[in-house]
Amino acid sequence: MSTGKNCKIIDDKNSCGFIYPFIDKIINLLKFINLVELFKYLSKKILAENASERNIISNSRIAVDIFIIGKWLYLIWLIFFQVNSTFHLFFVWYLIYSNVYTYFYYHTWSDLILSDNLITASRLKRRFVNLCISILFTIFCFAYLYFVPYRYDYKWINTPPTFFSSLVFSISNSLTANFNEIVPQTKTGTTIAIIQLVIMAIFITIIIVGSIPQINCIERDGKNGVQK
User: Fold this and answer.
1) How many CB atoms lie within 10 A of CB 176?
2) What's the rounded Cα separation, in Å, for the pair 81 and 111?
3) SS3 at position 110
4) What is the pLDDT of residue 217?
5) Residue pair 226/8 in contact by the 8 Å Cβ criterion
6) Three-state secondary-structure class, residue 223
7) Which end of the chain is more exposed for a tag (fewer CB within 10 A), N or C?
8) What angle do CA 160, 163, 167 make, to 5 degrees?
């Protein structure tokens, strides 16, 4: 993804009607209920007020990595002990939402992705690694949902149900492939499978959008133009 070094980005939200500014406002507000933002905020508080921008970014990324490791450990604990409660069910759904929102916001929606000085080889590789981790985490979250809290919403050909079977079903469902050993038998089971398909479609859309150059500059009067 390449950009012109002297491209000027114009914020023209006021000339975009009212649908886009409204949606943009909602998406930006949702950022405040994203738990990973708390980790990033605390990482900034740890640094001195006169800390360099490089140190702030470095601490922020470390905080994100800690959050990623923490949510994986939490999910593994839920799966291993087959924990099933309303609170944990709600929190897993929240983590699924947070997982999708974070990757969508910072890799598709945020104005920061248009900044030339942030486009580096390391950052692009980190984005790819985070994408793989996000997709894998989503697959494991749904595997937990199929295996523990919504177990009785599915017909299991092989009994007793195993996490391996639910994981294979989650992977197959993500790829829109058939896995006949687990079949939804209630509306709730079907709805959850559809939600996973929609989420995976969102990830695919993000990948496609991310592969398109974010800024198009044109030559105008011998100088770099602006984004149209």
Assistant:
1) 9
2) 42
3) coil
4) 44
5) yes
6) strand
7) C
8) 130
